[in-house]
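We emphasize that the prediction below concerns an isolated chain of 268 residues; any contacts that depend on oligomerization or on bound cofactors are therefore not represented. The input was used exactly as deposited, without trimming of termini.
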Amino acid sequence: MDWPTIGVKLGLRGPRWHWRLMRWERAWRELMRGGSAGSGTPATWVILAVNLVAFSLMVIQGAVSGRGFQAIFSPDVELLIQAGAQFWPLVEIKGQWWRCLTYAYTHGGVIHLLFNMMVLYQVGPAIEAEIGTMRFLTLYTVTALTATAAGLFWHPIAPVVGASGSLFGLIGFAIVYYHRVGGPAAHNLRNFMLRWAAFAFVFGLVVGADNAGHLGGALGGAALGAVLPLGIRGRMTLRPLFNFLGTLCIAATVVSLVMLVLSWARGY
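Result of the prediction step, given as a token string:
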């Protein structure tokens, strides 16, 4: 594209803006080829940032509503539901289907948040760099849904928060996917993920976490890990599908978060 001319029309004058526009175009083309927008892992960092922003907004809501800064360590159930927790009675009765995704960006205190973000920081970049950003977004979003679906069958009236369903989805995916890849390096990654899964599961038992959601996320991730093509030819064939699914997941997440914000004005 003629970025200098487009930049002038948009009011973005100067070579610095033209270079940025070309860099953004290259990043988008790389995403559409199934890559990860250069050498970085943008989806991992965006997901991490959204979780931090969502938690900050919950703490502010708690302070404004007279709870002080209690929400930093132990937000009450009402505040968690207001902040986007999954609560199936509200989903089924009031049609708040956006909770099926917003719960994955809501956390029950700073320790819960930091533990989940540490896991995301540890496992997210490696998986995103391996399978590409659009596939990673699809994996993360779909396993959030399989995790909350498992919770519906296991504890349908319990409020649920946290990214751990999706994180177990990443781990379940990696265990199966890297086992299929084979070789010492892939099996070392598989074993690393197995250790994370064992540690997180035991930790969940100790603190009374939602292990039904963990199982649902892990099974969803393992299923995707079992069917995602390993070779270049298979990836090329399915690239349009995952570009579409990744875009759909982005749109669903953005719409869900917007619906959450709008619900605050209506008293959820």
